[in-house]
């Protein structure tokens, strides 16, 4: 197990280095001289300042040397400096990371739990009206733009009914502490997490349903029936466990989309996470910050993947033992 | 072919999907005729609510632009981006998948590591970065969407080719002296066509969603009116003017839904697996 | 005779609309008596497993019984509620299936899967269930039952998994055991062991066994009574001896006549051998599986281990062995679908093993292959004409000529010339195999390698294809390498036989000598395991 985790970490490290390299070249591909861009960001585009920047960032050195310097910096968690915000990129991201983790994790759990539950329900009633209803709803969620669902949720639940807050992470100026603060954050979390999870819920539901139906055709299910087992036990112990294997794989792959979706959700709800940070970086053409967020979100995806891989090994003995 | 149509039309959802898509295509084609004026032009007072003036049934936006006209021109952008970026993604993904699956060994290893890399990177975030760095334009948007959406194609084609490769009729073709190129083009790829077609129809849908999301964040082509841009521009005024974000959203939803329904219909029609059972 | 435990009376089972006939089972009646093994025999599509599945209430979704009754314990099973049915399954009637590989849940330990049988009927405590599971595994003869109990299915061999299935079926001492082709997926030696086990357990527990099979050899080994099915109807029933020795119905007679006879084969003395066309010397092939870049250690399998053989013009050499013996790898190395690690393959004097590119393409014209699966061996999107003409065209024959030659080839394999404009799915399995043969002949080869070429066919079709191959071989002066797991087929068609085990040829010689006087211990085991052999020998006197 330890060996497996080490191997996966090694692989993740390789991918991260590849992403850093990609980032580096993207900065260089950005229109204009990086120094001029940075100077522009700092709001002082005179020649002397640019020359100073060139030296400071080694921009007068060969490209490969620059790449080396850059990689070394990133490895020390130096993601560069945001001149717009006058703060190191790493610091900006670290400040915002917890909010994003909270949002994406909540959305992930909601979508996975509700999605598989609905999928199991639909597969058990395949062809009946409840299956049609669940499947149609999933199809609808699957086609709904994330940010639009978020806007409509704000419109309905926060503007029209005024049930839930549709803005921010906690009530500004309320100065809640302890449990009251947690509850307040929880209330703020409901709409963003649900709308972010909606699309993925549909994905998991469809996958679970298809997978349940496929597994229920397999020979060992017939064996289980031949034993005289109750339908509910066959569903749970034989069909569900096997059907979850592809869903777990998919969940790992979809995690990346979840981080991407957070950009949209956080923008709509003014949720102070790295997605919102990315939107701000976009609006201000703050490339260092933009690429820094990109790098961290890729790292988050790798983490999600690692977790699902470990999970998969717990479910499937063929991989664990072999 | 007639058989295929019959099976396709038996799926009610697919027929609904085709109908919706036909309407969207029609709107996109007719847009310049029905709305000869630019959709960017101010035509009335700002924030004209919908259904209040016959000439502007869906009202006007914060700058007094005709929402109806914007929707019609937006259909053009959505369809164009969806179609072209999917074709581009297929052009990247199919050769990579076919080569990896057919030749195996180190070629497969190298190509799949490459694919895996692109699959691991959060695709929407990468698309944002690419469009932002290369300046938003219809070309950069299409390129970015193609770059983030080819990996599933490569994986699908590789898997299909891999399973076909060990099929006996491919081995027979090798023995009969046909060249690798002829075998890939004549024996292998035609048999992977149905899953590729199904995937492609779903990819068009995803591409439309991606384009609209980029435009929503302000990364749309500044010269082209798109649905995502309309919603993005209306985001801050949602409390005053709900219709500005509501209608474009419905347009996206219906188009994407239609494409997904068509994809499912194609899947049912192209893979009639139910026919082969019952001893 | 005693009261039957199960009576099936005028059973009719309807197929879904659009099937090739209306009823899977049509007016079928038979009785199953305690302590007997009743074999239901038939070719694919005969509906032979339908009535048994109906007795378990396990018919496929779209198929349903429409008339008749299945009486068990004085009640009609078809009228039971699902709850009553559940009580019956596993406790009173148990079942084992064809595919031991997929019949067990891959995610559950063996002991848990056995314990489930008790759990399903609320019997015993969890601890006792475990204890019983190990006792049952011991009874069905699994080596190291304690360890097997803790194992996952993928860690067991096919034969062991089938033993686990049998252990599960035995758990509650059912009155009836239904066995649906339980040995079809197994190697011949494993099959012999499982048949013996079923016979043994049946006697010890006094069960009635309903045994469904397509193989008359298996029938001869195990049956007390036989019912023969064709197109959903029972055409003949009787004791095993009656049906096998004096079949009354023409269909049964045809089926039994189609079984390759062990005694048939070539003439006892070896004919004068002609000059060798193919000479294989010291062929080796190893596979390395697993073994990632970093940590895990690779597994090395010696699939072909120092194999040498020669094939004379006009001769048929059989390569026989069980799965994993390397027999198919040898065939694939010969045509270079697989590259051997070392050794030479001289085809008419030219070493095939070290050719590549254009030279290999040219040399392959003389050595062609016939494949096993009549469904996977033809491109579903190509018309038959193209399938046959493609090879010659790739070698520069003009299109028109290639197609006219295709028509002649179709005639040669007894297919209509109109076939060239049709797609493979319009043909039956036997016809498809004929198309495959025509394709192999299109390049006018001198050697043909037939890899399990008749294994997927029903016995009556198999006989026709074997006859065709023998006839073509003589007419075209072909040399044939016939790779098969079925020793009966080998006995019928081969002049000489090579027996393979674990990548090596353990014995090679004239077919008659191999069957009458095997020298190697493994060859002996293999031959003794041929189902129906003893009966056949006894009958031959």
Write a compact overview of the structure shown.
The complex is a heterotrimer of chains A (322), B (279) and C (541). By secondary structure, chain B is an all-alpha fold.
Key features of this structure:
heterotrimer; A: 322 residues; mainly alpha; two-stranded antiparallel sheet; 13 helices; globular; C: 541 residues; alpha/beta; six-stranded mixed sheet; 20 helices; 20 strands
Helix content of chain B: over 70%
What is the strand tally of chain B?
0
* Cα-based radius of gyration of chain C, to the nearest Å: 26 Å
Using the CA coordinates, give the radius of gyration of chain B: 22 Å
| Top-tier CATH class of chain B | Mainly Alpha
Structural class based on helices, strands and sheet pairing of chain C: alpha/beta
Largest sheet of chain C: 6 strands, mixed
Q: Provide the β-strand percentage band of chain C.
A: 15-25%
Annotation field: number of helices of chain B: 11
Low-confidence stretches of chain B: 273-279
Order of helices and strands of chain B: HHHHHHHHHHH
Based on Cα principal axes, name the global outline of chain B.
Answer: elongated
Average pLDDT level of chain B = 88
> So what's the overall shape of chain C?
globular
CATH architecture descriptor name of chain B: Orthogonal Bundle
Per DSSP E runs of 2 or more residues, the count of β-strands of chain C stands at: 20
The biggest beta sheet of chain B reads:
none
Give the secondary structure arrangement, pairings included.
The complex is a heterotrimer of chains A (322), B (279) and C (541).
Chain A: H1 2-29, H2 34-42, H3 47-56, H4 63-75, E1 81-82, E2 87-88, H5 89-124, H6 129-143, H7 146-160, H8 178-215, H9 219-226, H10 231-269, H11 274-283, H12 287-315, H13 317-321
Antiparallel strand pairs in A: 1-2
Helix pairs in contact in A: 1-4, 1-12, 2-3, 5-6, 5-8, 5-10, 5-12, 6-8, 7-8, 7-10, 8-10, 9-10, 10-11, 10-12, 11-12
Chain B: H1 2-10, H2 12-34, H3 67-103, H4 105-120, H5 123-133, H6 138-149, H7 151-165, H8 168-175, H9 180-216, H10 227-234, H11 242-270
Helix pairs in contact in B: 1-11, 2-3, 2-11, 3-4, 3-6, 3-7, 3-9, 3-11, 4-7, 5-6, 6-9, 7-9, 8-9, 9-10, 9-11, 10-11
Chain C: E1 6-14, E2 23-32, E3 37-41, H1 50-56, E4 64-72, E5 75-76, H2 82-88, E6 93-96, H3 110-120, H4 126-139, H5 145-150, H6 158-170, E7 176-180, H7 188-205, E8 208-213, H8 216-222, E9 225-230, E10 233-239, H9 240-245, H10 250-258, E11 276-289, E12 299-312, E13 316-320, H11 327-334, E14 342-347, E15 350-351, H12 357-363, E16 367-370, H13 384-394, H14 399-412, H15 429-441, E17 447-451, H16 459-476, E18 479-484, H17 487-493, E19 496-501, E20 504-510, H18 511-516, H19 521-528, H20 533-540
Helix pairs in contact in C: 3-4, 3-6, 4-6, 6-7, 13-14, 13-15, 14-15, 15-16
